[in-house]
Amino acid sequence: MVTKTEETQLNRLEGQVENGGGGAWDYLCFVRKLKVRRSDKVLKYGLSILNDPKKRSSLGPEEWTLYEQVAIAAMDCQCLDVAKDCINVLQKRFPESKRVGRLEGMLLEAKGSWTEAEKAYLSLLEDNPLDQVIHKRRVALAKAQGNMSEAIEFINKYLEIFMADSDTWRELAEIYVSLQMYKQAAFCYEELILAQPTVPLYHLAYADVLYTLGGLENLQAAKKYYSSAIELTGGKNTRALFGICLCTSAIAQLTKGRNKEEKDSPDLQSLATAALEKDYKQRASDKVSVLGSALKSLKVSS
Amino acid sequence: MGLGFLIGAFGVLILAHAAFSTIQYRGLLKILEEEFSGPPVNVIVELLLALSFCMWAALTAAGKFLSVHHHSEENRIVSLPANMDFLIFNHRGKVFSPGTDMRLKH
Fold first, then answer.
1. A46 in any annotated domain
2. Do B85 and A133 lie within an 8 Å CB cutoff?
3. Does any domain span residue A261?
4. Boundary of a domain, candidates A56, A77, A98
5. What is the pTM of this model?
6. Which ipTM score applies to this complex?
7. Which of A74, A117, A131, A246 could be a cystine partner for A109, CB 3.0 to 4.6 Å?
8. Do B78 and A37 touch (CB under 8 A)?
């Protein structure tokens, strides 16, 4: 989870390194800790450290983690010979290592030789059938080939054993959403919210899926989850505020024929609208008129 | 905060001085062969002074308080980490040519 202070710190370090102010090793450690994907910068600054023998020796035993990080970044930027060299260095140092075996499998994947990568992963799994990382790489292999049903099958088998892995549930939810299987995606997001209830982004994604599914009950639940996302972010999430306006107008459209037995929160929409207008005035004051006309059209259709 | 530390150090010094003078007083009583009923009045005054100084320093020289709310400006979650375990390399970035000077030089 990347918090706001960590994001500002990351941007500051990035700016500092880009303008030649040093601190590349701090930046690389921070990227590794936050698990963000900044492969081009990692490759550039990692290579600058690794190619300088003085800086390399000052790292000590953390040199090998840097080799691994640069190898993965190189594969992401499609510099396969850099990756091959890094993996060779790691292979010489750690001959029988599973981590290096995984890196070799990833290199085969990056080259596009799917069958050899599959063979490499299967042989690694033979020695250690409960290796979580290799199972996840098999899923990624199936996903890279475009074989989504096989990826889903692998993830389901993995989740039967390792049920508490939130990252995998999130990956499964995203695959289902990409295949438009929204009911299953909603189930995955429910698991995520159960495991980590204070992360507002899961609430937001769940509300989005419910809103997409449609139907009166789903819309009411979506409104509740948008509200909880607003509460968890202290009102700073614009998407959740928009979500509330859309849900209210969609619910009102569905219940137009019936008599209005109970309107549980008539002022929720007006509060959300007021918050949106204030936010826009503060951050993008030239777009306030666009916002006003969009909200008006929502109210007209309701 | 500097003043807090100074006052705290001053209070500790006064405490040490009070301890020293009590030991001296006991030595004096041993010479005069009288009973040791309690420390003299000035030592007690010194002890109370040192206590008040140290308490004041401990309360004012506190560190920086961090926010606890999960929706405060520093703590709010901005983005989720990219799932690095499920990274695929089969993306559109493949067509961008890497810099030709990207090489591991040994």
1. yes
2. yes
3. no
4. A77
5. 0.82
6. 0.77
7. A117
8. no
